[in-house]
Design goal:
The complex is a heterodimer. Chain A folds into two domains: about 230 residues, P-loop containing nucleotide triphosphate hydrolases (Rossmann fold), CATH 3.40.50.300; about 120 residues, no CATH class. In chain A, about 20% of the residues lie in helices and about 35% in strands. Chain B has two domains: about 35 residues; about 625 residues, Orthogonal Bundle (MetI-like fold). In chain B, the strands form four sheets. In chain B, strands 1-2 form a two-stranded antiparallel sheet. Chain B has a two-stranded parallel ribbon with strand order 3-4. In chain B, helix 12 runs antiparallel to helix 15. Chain B is globular. The chains are: A alpha+beta, B mainly alpha.
């Protein structure tokens, strides 16, 4: 029994006929937290949000908001504010009528009148003068701010944001997400945010859950998820990454498994790996790469290296990458190339020409091991 | 406590406790739900309305029709196939099929009444397609003044009382009709065209060609110009591109139009009754005379056979409709050419092809004026002009007959009053029921499909059959849980009208509801509104044109309904305008056309409401397609409105024709 505040999903499953939208989702959102569900389209993140909002019912599992079991509770009794991607403003009402709609069914929080509450919220979202306007005359960003004000007006205990920024252009999106975050902090309202944009998820969240195929792959702070992806899917989905798979051919930096040689004395003499880490030589696509991994000989290893860890001139783990494509991003360029039939992504300030071969390498401890199978 | 025995006991105890917890938890949820209902009684509004609509449908449609089916398989309370066997083995009904080995296909009389009914339906279908197809071409490919209005006018078959078609044909082609007046004026001998099979077929074409035009125009407007241009760029000639790209996309629509027309004309009633005469009686007419002669067993058998056939064809239609549901509208429809291009002032641009196509459109326009405008204009003309003089005699007759008519005679004023009263009562029932059913069908889940199916079923049953069922099942009385339930004629008539009319409300309201962003209702609900409140606050204000269009349809259907009314009004004082027209039409043209003019006026008002309001944008029958040509947003709605609209012809036509 949970009596704590916040949101708990426990073993939630949603099945429509033959298709399973959510296989098994268990997650806990702390009170006041900005929690993001991120994943590719169709992964089940929106379904999760709709279960919380009461628009879908879970086939199995337990959903609690502030400790209350909300299964069977209709949306109007959940005290949940929702903002949708396409605003869903009521086109036949003015902005103020939209924001005040929820106050027809409940007393305004804070004791004032409904009108006061409406102007308070319009000021909060930076549209103090827009009350009398017709929502269809507003820009996308303004509409979304009205939608946010409307969702917040009755003082919900939980705010659900379903891709609220996806319909807006890039610059506006960044500005508005800062606004959303500021308001969320000010009000301290528990928020579940759904987005397919992993960069956005990393930028705004207190914590995030990466969702794929109706399951949660990983839950953690943006830093944890970025640095230590728990699964191959997360490694590939969050940020650019180079994922390698191979078989361990030797453990202890090329020396036989049973030799028991000290790891610290690596023949290359370069850097020192931590006491508790061992080096392994992994055969990937016919080449041997040395990575910091605790595993046995013969094991299959999946590991990843961020593009910024692939540096030119490093003599460990040298990869000769044939450049196939470069993208200028501003401060840096993203370079895509091929190494032994595998696609490699690099970051560089001075992009090479397409067709050129560049030599990059990475240190054994720049590697994050995603999976080891003996 | 830790001995194995104890452990077993405590495990059982734990399991028991868990079960109790499960039960109490479920109970708690039930109580919480009940408390929520008590706190907000408005939550009950929609379920109650839906339940009321369902019971209405059950009591005044499914139950009565079921009694007809039971009648068809019982004789004196015993189960027997005799009534059915009697009909299917009677050469009168099935012709040479009753006597195997005697091929009688060569002779029309050898077909039997079922064969004849199918034969006239096939002829009528061919005529409707022939008359309707050029209309689709003209409407989809040419731009001219009044095109929008003409396109909107193709909904007329849905709201035009079939009795008005009958009066129109009598007024135009009858012995004293406009045609003979014109022939007489130029010194030519008069012609006697009525009653005849060709009159029936032409009247059916008048009635159903607009339907073909409507369906095919919609399909034509869905043809993507890009596809045609691609074919031309790949080397296809203009003709080849038309045959290879356009025709395959029109063919399904032509089939749909033809199927519906066949269903309608197979069960057509007043047109055949009044224009065909006794010699050309179809199954529906024989069904009606069987009811009049109190031969209920035979009537039931005919009803079952006819309904079965109609259901089969309707099922085929629905199957097609479901398949084409995914069909998207054209990104860029084929451009329309100006009928009279401004550049034509220069002679050089006159080519044979251009002149030819324009001449074809103008020629078709003349036929349209003769076939469509002629009869309706004749109704008004004949009601005002008697013996070459402008007079109000016919209208005065309606009033004087009111004062002097004997009690057994059909009086005009009660007919008008009854029509309006039934129309209003029908609205009061059909509008809330239609809205409730629309909400149920647009809702998610498997229920919506079932609701959709059950509410579509009345389409396939003719008004005569519904009338017969109501008469046998409710007017004569039925015993329900030991109580004898009877309803009076007016209630039964209203019920029959409501059953026929509410699908029109559904077909106008449901697509409009379906096009609204679901998120609007979800937003309202998350803000604290109940489902019913969201409907009233958000949905209805946004779709009111659709609701109004549905209301106009419902009213027009009720006012024009003939089949069920004539069965139920038999011998009573509850006759309506169409019934009165039918009584007058064979005897005196003046009163019939005067009352026909009143009917025409009601139809015209309904049409204007539909066109101005309903047609303004929602996915009804109005000029919905029109928006498609200008805005991409409207196209989807057009397609949907168009498709979802078509089955509606069925109830209206079933009842009207």
């Amino acid at each position: 029994m949970t009596d704590a505040a916040g949101v708990t999903l426990d073993g939630v499953r949603v099945v429509y006929g033959e298709t399973t939208a959510l296989a098994d989702v268990s997650v806990r959102v702390e009170p006041g937290e900005f929690f993001t569900l991120v994943g590719p389209s169709g992964c089940g993140k929106t379904t999760t949000l709709r279960v919380l909002g009461g628009f879908e019912s879970a086939t199995a599992g337990d959903v609690r908001i502030d400790g209350q079991d909300v299964s069977g509770v209709p949306p109007e009794d959940r005290g949940v504010g929702v903002v949708f991607q396409h605003y869903a403003l009521f086109p036949h009402m003015t902005v103020a009528e939209n924001v005040g709609y929820g106050l027809r069914f409940s007393e305004p929080p804070g004791g004032g009148t409904a009108d006061e509450r409406v102007s308070e919220l319009l000021s909060l979202v930076g549209l103090p003068e827009a009350g009398e306007r017709d929502p269809t005359t507003l820009s996308g960003g303004q509409r979304q701010r009205v939608a946010l004000a409307r969702a917040l007006a009755p003082g919900p205990r939980l705010l659900l944001l379903d891709e609220p920024l996806s319909a807006l252009d890039a610059q506006l999106r960044e500005r508005l997400r800062r606004t959303v975050r500021r308001i969320q902090r000010e009000l301290g309202i528990t928020t579940v945010y759904v987005t397919h944009d992993q960069a956005e998820a990393l930028a705004v969240s207190d914590r995030l859950a990466v969702v794929s195929d109706g399951r949660i792959e990983q839950v953690g702070t943006p830093r944890e998820v970025y640095r230590r992806p728990a699964t191959r899917f997360v490694a590939g989905f969050v940020g650019d990454n180079n994922v390698f798979e191979g078989t361990v051919s030797a453990v202890g930096d090329g020396v036989d498994d049973h030799a028991g040689r000290d790891d610290r004395l690596s023949p290359a003499g370069e850097g020192s790996t931590a006491d508790d880490e061992r080096l392994a030589t992994v055969r990937v696509g016919g080449a041997e790469l040395t990575v910091a991994a605790d595993c046995r000989r013969g094991a299959s290893v999946t590991f990843c290296v961020r593009p910024d860890a692939l540096t030119p001139g490093a003599d460990r783990n040298r990869l000769d990458v044939t450049v196939t494509e470069t993208e200028f991003l501003g401060e840096t360029s993203r370079v895509r190339g091929e190494w032994r039939g595998q696609s490699i992504t690099l970051r560089t300030t001075e992009p090479p020409a397409v067709g050129e071969t560049v030599s990059v390498g990475f240190g054994p401890d720049a590697v994050h091991v995603v999976d080891v199978t003996d | 406590m830790d001995t194995p025995v104890h452990r077993g006991v405590s495990r059982r105890r734990r399991r028991f406790a868990a079960a109790v917890r499960g039960v109490t938890e479920r109970l708690r949820r039930r109580v919480a739900a009940a408390r929520r209902l008590r706190d907000r009684p408005e939550r009950l509004v929609l379920p109650a309305l839906a339940a009321a609509s369902a019971s209405l449908l059950l009591v005044v449609f499914y139950y009565p029709v079921a009694t007809v089916f039971v009648d068809a398989v019982t004789v004196d309370g015993e189960v027997s196939l005799a009534p059915l066997v009697d009909v299917v083995s009677d050469p009168f009904y099935v012709g040479w099929l009753a006597e195997p080995g005697v091929p009688g296909l060569g002779k029309l009389s050898g077909l039997g009444r079922f064969g004849f009914t199918a034969w006239q339906a096939a002829l009528s279908t061919a005529a409707s397609v022939a008359l309707g197809l050029p209309g689709a071409w003209a409407l989809a490919r040419f731009e001219f003044r009044g095109r929008r209005t003409l396109r909107s006018l193709t909904i007329l078959p849905f709201i035009l009382p079939s009795m008005l078609v009958v009066v129109g044909f009598y007024a135009a082609f009858g012995a004293d009709g406009t045609l003979n007046t014109l022939l007489g004026a130029v010194g030519l001998p008069t012609v006697d065209l009525l009653p005849s099979l060709s009159a029936v077929v032409v009247a059916h074409a008048f009635y159903n060609a607009p339907l073909v035009t409507r369906v095919v125009t919609a399909a034509y407007e869905r043809v993507d110009a890009g596809a045609v241009e691609t074919a031309r760029a790949l080397g296809a000639s203009r003709r080849r591109a038309f045959l290879d790209v356009v025709v395959p996309q029109l063919l399904p629509a032509v089939l749909v139009g033809a199927t519906l027309t066949f269903v309608f004309t197979f069960a057509s009633f007043p047109i055949v009754l009044a224009l065909g005469g006794t010699r050309l009686a179809t199954v529906e007419v024989l069904l009606f005379s069987a009811i009049r002669q109190l031969e209920y067993g035979e009537a039931a058998a005919l009803a079952v056979l006819e309904t079965g056939l109609s259901l089969l064809l309707t099922a085929a239609y629905l199957r097609y409709e479901r398949q084409s549901q995914t069909e998207r509208s054209a990104v860029r429809p084929l451009p329309r050419r100006e009928l009279v291009p401004s550049a034509w002032r220069e002679r050089a641009t006159w080519t044979v092809r251009r002149l030819g196509s324009r001449a074809a459109v103008v020629g078709y326009g003349l036929i349209v004026i003769c076939v469509f405008v002629g009869p309706l204009a004749s109704v008004v003309y004949e009601s005002l002009v008697i013996d070459g003089r402008l007079t109000t005699t016919a209208y005065e007759f309606l009033l004087t007959r009111q004062q002097t008519g004997a009690s057994f005679q059909v009086k005009p004023w009660p007919a008008v009053r009854n029509s309006v009263a039934f129309g209003v009562a029908t609205l009061a029932v059909a509008l809330p029921a239609g809205v409730a059913v629309s909400v149920a069908t647009t809702g998610e889940g498997r229920w919506s499909r079932l609701v959709d199916l059950l509410s579509v079923a009345p389409f396939a049953v003719s008004g005569i059959v519904v009338g017969l069922g109501l008469l046998r099942g409710l007017v004569f009385g039925a015993v329900v849980f030991g109580y004898r339930v009877t309803v009076t004629g007016p209630v039964a008539i209203t019920a029959a009208h409501a059953v026929g009319a509410y699908p029109f409300v559904v077909r106008n309201v449901a697509p409009a509801l379906g096009e609204l962003d679901d998120r609007l209702v979800e937003s309202a609900r998350s803000l604290g509104a109940s489902r019913a409140r969201a409907l009233v606050d958000i949905e209805l204000p946004l779709i009111w044109p659709g609701v109004l269009a549905g209301a106009a349809f419902a009213f027009a259907v009720s006012v024009g309904e003939f089949d069920a009314t004539v069965v139920l009004a038999e011998g009573g004082g509850t006759y309506t305008m169409p019934v009165a027209v039918e009584r007058y039409v064979g005897r005196r043209l003046g009163p019939a056309t005067a009352m026909g003019t009143v009917l025409l006026f009601v139809t015209a008002v309904s049409f204007v409401v539909l066109d101005r309001v309903g047609g303004g944008g929602v996915g009804g029958f109005g000029s919905g397609g029109e928006r498609g040509s200008t805005g991409s947003g409207g196209r989807g709605s057009t397609g949907r409105g168009e498709r979802s609209g078509d089955p509606d012809g069925n109830p209206g036509r079933g009842d009207q024709s």
